[in-house]
Write a structure and sequence with these properties.
This protein has helices at residues 15-30, 44-49, 69-75, 85-118, 132-135, 174-187, 189-201, 260-263, 275-278, 282-292, 324-327, 340-345; strands spanning 6-9, 34-39, 53-56, 122-126, 141-145, 220-224, 241-244, 269-273, 298-302, 316-319, 333-336. The protein is of the alpha/beta class. Helix 5 links the parallel strand 4 and strand 5 (141-145). The longest helix is centred in the N-terminal third of the chain and has 34 residues, at 85-118. This is UDP-glycosyltransferase.
Length: 346
């Protein structure tokens, strides 16, 4: 630890990966290392408030929102509609890969320039695809995965586990696993060939096989998940993979005091959060609020990007976002969509 490193973080432009990257960055920064984020403009204000250096991948504008939740929800709005889990998964596979390649292509040349100018000692990327600028940089790099470890199958597949995205249990019907797996691969098949051509044309030394989305780093791959819930007893991982219980942010920049309307109420304190994506499903949020309004307890609600499109009940308080890591220590129960940051922070 006597050697001070420059660490470049390159997370995908989604709330979850950036928040988990912030958790890692805080630890490194507190240990005296220089931490820099290559990020889009909407995250600049938030990152700088944490005293983190930012190298912008996009032009700086006055429209700084503090996160990308609204844009993320807009990209995947059709997935939030009333469909079966399989329909949602297949659509998500198709939409996500196409959008991510489009965004990454816009950022690629700028990212190469940043890496060349900054000369970091190590690069940490929380992404869903391999980036040519990183894989071909000649600099040691770490692939970070902040999603459920079942989703590691998009880069490191093991058929002892069910396919990801569908929410399948390890005890589900194994006869259907391969059928679902092939359907998920077929959903991204057309875009995968475009992705492969994009990697090759941008000089990537690593190209995934068999419709996979990323190639594991030869240096290190990290993911977060509680040890008790992990799948390593069924599917051991290579020595280059390392698990962390969480990559929890400190939230030191946030403050939170329980609002008066909840202080005066009796009952247990419950936190409702469906994450940056689930909360954008307004019919679902309205339904949950109608049900919970009949409850004798009181609620803190993370309302999400559509916060202006519905009202909370009298036994509730909430805003577009709430400082989750400050709220968690004071609640009696959390109702969550099961997002990996929410699970591990809880």
């Amino acid at each position: 630890m006597s050697r001070k490193l420059t660490v470049l973080f390159v997370p995908i432009n989604y709330v979850g990966p950036i928040n988990s990257s912030i958790g890692m960055a805080e630890v490194l920064k507190d240990s005296g290392h220089r931490v820099v984020f290559a990020a889009r403009n909407e995250w600049s204000k938030r990152l700088k408030s944490l005293d983190i250096e930012v190298e912008l991948l996009t032009e700086e504008t006055d429209e700084v929102t503090g996160d990308s939740a609204a844009a993320n929800a807009e990209e995947l709005k059709s997935v939030l509609e009333d469909k079966t889990p399989l329909e949602k998964a297949l659509e998500c596979m198709s939409i996500l890969l196409n959008d991510v390649i489009h965004d990454s292509d816009k950022d690629e040349q700028k990212l190469k320039q940043i890496i060349k100018r900054l000369k970091p000692h190590v690069i940490i990327t929380d992404h869903i695809i391999t980036l040519p600028s990183i894989a071909g940089s000649g600099i040691p790099w770490i692939f970070s995965y902040s999603s459920n470890p079942l989703s590691l199958d998009t880069g490191y597949e093991d058929k002892r586990l069910p396919p990801s995205i569908l929410g399948l249990s390890i005890n589900s019907n194994k006869n259907l696993w391969e059928e679902y797996r092939q359907q998920l691969k077929n959903a991204r098949k057309d875009d995968w060939f475009k992705y492969k051509d994009w990697l090759i044309s941008n000089g990537s030394p690593l190209v995934p096989d068999d419709f996979q989305l990323w190639v594991p780093s030869p240096f290190a791959n990290v993911y977060m998940f509680p040890e008790e819930l992990d799948y390593t007893d069924v599917r051991p991982l290579p020595k280059t993979f390392h698990r962390f219980d969480c990559m929890k942010r400190s939230g030191n920049e946030d403050t939170f005091e329980l609002p008066d309307k909840l202080k005066s109420r009796s009952g247990k304190l419950i936190y409702l959060s469906l994450g940056s994506m689930g909360s954008a499903n307004v019919p679902l949020m309205k339904r949950l609020i109608a049900i919970l309004s009949k409850c004798e307890h009181k609620f803190i609600v993370s309302k999400g990007v559509k916060h202006n499109e519905y009202e909370l009940a009298d036994n509730m308080w909430g805003e577009r976002t709430v400082p989750q890591v400050k709220v968690l220590p004071i609640i009696d129960l959390m109702i969550t969509h099961g997002g990996n940051n929410s699970v591990t922070e809880t």
